[in-house]
Design goal:
Blueprint: E1 6-12, E2 26-31, H1 34-65
Antiparallel strand pairs: 1-2
Length: 69
């Protein structure tokens, strides 16, 4: 029988009801399948594209203002 694969999708932590402080965090996992892996790759590409666009805007505005990077 093949062993199922899981990928970590985040972390969570409960709060202490008395103090409101966070308890130790624990990982959240999801069963890895083709759709999940494709979705994760798409999200990484989208975020990278957004960061690259913001960096391009920053670089252009610095150039317009005469600020050397």
């Amino acid at each position: 029988m093949a062993k199922e694969k899981y990928i970590q999708i985040g972390e969570a932590a409960l709060r202490d009801p008395v103090t409101g402080e966070f308890q130790p965090s624990f990982p959240l996992y999801m069963r890895a399948n083709d759709a999940v892996i494709a979705s994760r790759e798409r999200a990484i590409r989208d975020i990278a594209r957004l960061f690259a666009e913001k960096m391009r805007q920053y670089d252009e505005s610095c150039t317009r203002e005469g600020v050397a990077l």
